[in-house]
């Protein structure tokens, strides 16, 4: 019997799924149409740019800088706005709120730190957490608080809610009116603060504090300490009545005795101590740097080379704002340039005057004019301070009168080797370290537990022209490595040990090894190592210009420009304008 079989078929859901997919595609397209893609500097979400700089706003377009980026966004109904600081709220690529900040102040900057700024006439003010500075001359550039130069009035400040929100740097420093601010350290340049400051002058001194001004009588000593009522107003300022005289600090000792200062003295209280800053014209500052860094007996051309070095170095630090939190550009010690340790004399002043305004440039950069006392017949590269610190104009070279090819070890052992510095006392020297003396160096450095009993000393890494960049000390417990020129010289301190110089003088109180140019040899007694002899040459870090070589070169008829282009590679001596 034939039986019909009825086939049944499950109804397909494919049309339903296709409809869902189509709806999702349509929704995604509609969402994309309403929300434009983000452009650089914008996000899909709402964002507020605090203290942004509006370049222009018109015809529904806003151009502004924030976070160092120049941005352009749509802004419905915006009226014409140019060169304003503002908080800008962005949503979906459009400016929806612009809060202009109009309140401005202006004055000479006396100090600036990470969270404060002190402005003449306004005192110390807090910086906004979102503080921003904009350089608007030349190419628009965003900067930070460190770009606000102390001692100058080249910017205006925008304030709001009791804080300084931003700074608009409107012009460059006028070079012909340049001033430098020097933090004066204590006796023997120890410490950067003072318990008391005593001053006097042959002419009347004008004392300014807060909104008050008082005349102090000539030839009378006046003393300030942390309890002085004048300091309750903040900073006090002392200057001579004529503005051209000098003020002597009778409570401060330098090699010359009590030093006297041109310009003004500013005194501030820092906890239970006083800070003193001397502000004066840059060229007058150099009157007291050159004789403090180079004897007048070195001759005019060498002194002129020193003056150009010192001026270049000073400008670098003015622009770097090196000590801005203390209200200064430099201090008066060898950490920067020694200032007013010796008085000015006619020949050093002449060297400054005859090079007035001249600095060294390498391309667009002011040369960082490192110099030192005496070479060993070689100089070295700037990387003695750090492996990643290089300067194209500070390159090691031979400082020889005669071009004689030899290796470093042979040269350093020859006390008559022909170099410009040959006749100077520190050209060659040696010191013997007993094992006990070397062990003392290890203990002073706190390395006793790591090294144990000393068993070996060697120069493990040398830099350009033989300078020691690393030494290795081996002991019963292990080895340690001391790196960098200064740290090596500090570690191998010959203090209390006889240090023999080329001129026969023996010194026993020297804190640092004279230079990093040295050899290490074992001292043997019946085949047993009893210590190490260090044979070295030169005095100072060895990078840049050797001052004693400059003297010898000048005596041979070289000009100051000959000397500078010899020591600094690829530079030009130019008038800084």
List the helices and strands and how they pair.
Elements: H1 14-34, E1 47-58, E2 61-66, E3 69-74, E4 81-91, E5 94-101, E6 104-106, E7 109-112, E8 116-119, E9 123-135, E10 141-143, E11 155-160, E12 163-169, E13 179-183, E14 196-200, E15 205-209, E16 212-216, E17 222-225, E18 236-240, E19 247-249, E20 260-261, E21 264-270, E22 273-281, H2 282-293, H3 300-320, E23 330-331, H4 346-354, E24 358-362, E25 365-366, E26 371-372, H5 408-412, E27 429-434, H6 435-444, H7 448-451, E28 454-462, E29 468-475, E30 479-483, H8 485-491, E31 499-501, E32 506-507, E33 518-525, E34 528-536, E35 545-546, H9 547-555, H10 560-567, E36 572-575
Parallel strand pairs: 9-12, 13-23, 26-35
Antiparallel strand pairs: 1-2, 1-4, 2-3, 4-5, 6-11, 7-8, 8-9, 9-10, 11-12, 13-22, 14-17, 14-19, 15-16, 15-18, 18-21, 19-20, 21-22, 24-25, 24-36, 27-31, 27-34, 28-29, 29-30, 31-32, 33-34
Helix pairs in contact: 2-3, 2-4, 3-4, 3-9, 3-10
Number of extended strands: 36
Report the end-to-end length measured between terminal Cα atoms.
119 Å
Stretches with pLDDT under 50, minimum 5 residues: 1-22, 24-43
* Anisotropy-based shape: globular
């Amino acid at each position: 019997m034939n039986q019909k079989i009825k086939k049944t078929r499950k109804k397909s859901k494919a049309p339903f799924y296709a409809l869902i997919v189509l709806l999702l595609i349509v929704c995604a397209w509609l969402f994309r149409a309403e929300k434009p893609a983000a452009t650089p500097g914008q996000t899909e979400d709402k964002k507020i740019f605090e203290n942004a700089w509006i370049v222009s706003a018109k015809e529904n377009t806003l151009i502004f800088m924030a976070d160092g980026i120049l941005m352009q966004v749509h802004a419905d109904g915006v009226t014409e706005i140019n060169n304003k600081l503002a908080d800008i709220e962005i949503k979906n690529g459009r400016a929806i709120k612009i809060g202009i900040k109009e309140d401005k102040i202006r004055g000479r900057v006396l100090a600036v730190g990470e969270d404060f700024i002190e402005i003449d006439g306004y005192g110390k003010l807090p910086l906004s957490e979102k503080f921003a500075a904009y350089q608007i001359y030349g190419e628009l550039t965003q900067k930070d608080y460190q770009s606000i130069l102390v001692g100058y009035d080249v910017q205006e400040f925008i304030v709001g809610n009791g804080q300084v929100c931003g700074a608009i740097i409107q012009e460059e420093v006028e070079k012909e009116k340049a001033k430098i601010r020097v933090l004066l350290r204590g006796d023997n340049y120890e410490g950067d603060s003072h318990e008391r400051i005593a001053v006097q002058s042959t002419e009347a001194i004008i004392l300014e504090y807060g909104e008050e001004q008082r005349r102090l009588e000539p030839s009378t000593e006046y003393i300030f300490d942390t309890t002085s009522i004048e300091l309750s107003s903040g900073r006090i300022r002392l200057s001579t009545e004529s503005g051209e005289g000098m003020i002597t600090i009778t409570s401060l000792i330098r090699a010359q005795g009590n030093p006297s200062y041109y310009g003004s003295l500013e005194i501030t209280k820092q906890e239970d101590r006083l800070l003193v800053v001397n502000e004066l014209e840059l060229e007058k500052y150099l009157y007291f740097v050159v004789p403090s860094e180079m004897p007048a007996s070195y001759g005019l051309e060498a002194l002129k080379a020193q003056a150009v070095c010192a001026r270049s170095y000073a400008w670098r630090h003015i622009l770097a704002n090196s000590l801005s939190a203390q209200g200064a550009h430099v201090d008066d010690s060898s950490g920067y340039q020694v200032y007013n340790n010796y008085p000015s004399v006619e020949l050093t002043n002449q060297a400054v005057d005859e090079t007035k305004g001249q600095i060294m440039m390498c391309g667009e950069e002011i040369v960082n004019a490192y110099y030192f006392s005496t070479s060993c017949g070689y100089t070295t590269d700037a990387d003695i301070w750090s492996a990643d610190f290089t300067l194209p104009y500070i390159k090691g070279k031979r400082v020889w009168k005669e071009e004689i090819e030899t290796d470093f070890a042979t040269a350093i052992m020859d006390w008559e080797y022909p170099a410009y510095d040959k006749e100077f006392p520190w050209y060659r020297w040696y010191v013997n370290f007993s094992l006990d003396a070397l062990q003392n160096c290890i203990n002073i450095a706190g390395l006793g537990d790591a090294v144990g009993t000393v068993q070996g000393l060697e120069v493990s890494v040398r830099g350009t022209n033989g300078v020691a960049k690393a030494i290795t000390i081996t002991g019963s417990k292990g080895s340690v490595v001391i790196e960098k020129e200064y740290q090596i010289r500090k570690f191998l301190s010959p203090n209390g040990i006889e240090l023999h110089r080329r001129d026969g003088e023996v010194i026993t109180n020297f804190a640092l090894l004279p230079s990093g140019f040295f050899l290490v040899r074992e001292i043997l007694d019946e085949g047993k190592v009893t210590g190490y002899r260090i044979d070295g040459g030169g005095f100072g870090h060895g990078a840049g210009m050797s001052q004693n070589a400059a003297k010898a070169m000048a005596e041979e008829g070289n000009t100051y420009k000959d000397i500078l282009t010899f020591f600094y590679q690829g530079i030009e001596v130019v008038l800084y304008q």
